[in-house]
């Protein structure tokens, strides 16, 4: 489990999980769960295009994540945000189908990108993933207060000098970056679980934003580490364990809230 070929996996999974916990907190408090589900799927065609063109996979994922953000932002100005997100998703998935049809050596990679894989992380992937995660985490720290105010009330954020439209776009970009780098580890179908599960549990445990943010990161790291360990032992997809543990964390948070176990934390 801690052999030399697993070191890259542990490093990347820790970076990705911490970033997902950080960004996931705002996914929950801003009610952006659909975007958090759609953007990883929108980045999936980027990996297909990268394989077809022979370029770096992470670059393809990030480019398509940003294309997804541009599509959602542009279409949201002319209609409802959830409709714009859905239209962008189906358009990019259509492109992904086209790219996949152009290569015959991609079936194993497709499976890994959909469900996650623990042995597919190379040393050359660590630096770009670390840079993208650092940018996303730095943006969250820099915009923490405006994002939090905008989550409570767009009018309040605007009264304090923030532009809600720009905040929405900035958060979509942050979400896209975090989704793109998490996809090779967790899989496109379950990036959403790593972001929403721990953050939802943390949000149920406390109303204090700073503490909830810290709990979200801690739970995301624990889930990520446990998922990798069990995936290594059982040879089951890492995404399966991430999704299961995310649901358990949320259920425990709701149970603690219901029975008053977390009252002291909220106080």
UniProtKB/TrEMBL annotation:
- Domain of life of the organism encoding this protein: Bacteria
Which BP terms from GO are recorded?
A: transmembrane transport
| Gene3D superfamilies, per the entry | ABC transporter involved in vitamin B12 uptake, BtuC
Q: What is the topology of this protein in the membrane according to its UniProt annotation?
A: Multi-pass membrane protein
In the UniProt record, does the keyword Ribonucleoprotein occur?
no
The alphabetical list of record keywords is:
Membrane, Transmembrane, Transmembrane helix, Transport
User: Its GO CC terms?
Assistant: ATP-binding cassette (ABC) transporter complex
Places the protein is found: Cell membrane; Membrane
**Annotated transmembrane regions:** 7-29, 49-72, 84-106, 126-148, 169-192, 212-233, 240-257
> Which Pfam families does the record match to this protein?
ABC-3 (PF00950)
The similarity annotation says: Belongs to the ABC-3 integral membrane protein family.
The protein in question is named Metal ABC transporter permease
* Protein species of origin: Acidiphilium acidophilum (Thiobacillus acidophilus)
């Amino acid at each position: 489990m801690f052999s030399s070929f697993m070191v890259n996996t542990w490093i990347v999974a820790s970076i990705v999980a911490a970033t997902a916990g950080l960004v996931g907190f705002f996914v929950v408090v801003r009610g952006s769960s659909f975007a958090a589900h759609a953007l990883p799927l929108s980045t999936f065609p980027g990996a297909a295009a990268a394989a077809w063109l022979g370029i770096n996979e992470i670059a393809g994922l990030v480019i398509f994540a940003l294309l997804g953000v541009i599509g959602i932002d542009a279409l949201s100005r002319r209609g409802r945000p959830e409709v714009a997100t859905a239209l962008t998703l189906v358009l990019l998935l259509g492109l992904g189908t086209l790219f996949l049809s152009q290569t015959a050596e991609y079936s194993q990679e497709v499976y890994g990108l959909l469900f996650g894989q623990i042995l597919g992380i190379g040393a050359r992937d660590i630096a770009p993933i670390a840079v993208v995660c650092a940018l996303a985490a730095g943006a969250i720290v820099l915009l923490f207060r405006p994002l939090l105010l905008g989550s409570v009330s767009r009018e309040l954020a605007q009264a304090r000098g923030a532009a809600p439209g720009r905040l929405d776009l900035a958060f979509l970009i942050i979400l896209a970056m975090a989704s793109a780098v998490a996809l090779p580890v967790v899989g496109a179908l379950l990036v959403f679980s790593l972001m929403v599960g721990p953050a939802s549990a943390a949000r149920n445990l406390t109303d204090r934003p700073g503490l909830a943010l810290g709990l979200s990161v801690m739970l995301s790291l624990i889930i990520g580490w446990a998922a990798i360990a069990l995936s290594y032992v059982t040879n089951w997809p890492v995404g399966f364990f991430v999704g299961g543990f995310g649901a358990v964390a949320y259920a425990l948070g709701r149970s603690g809230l219901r029975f008053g176990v977390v009252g002291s934390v909220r106080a």
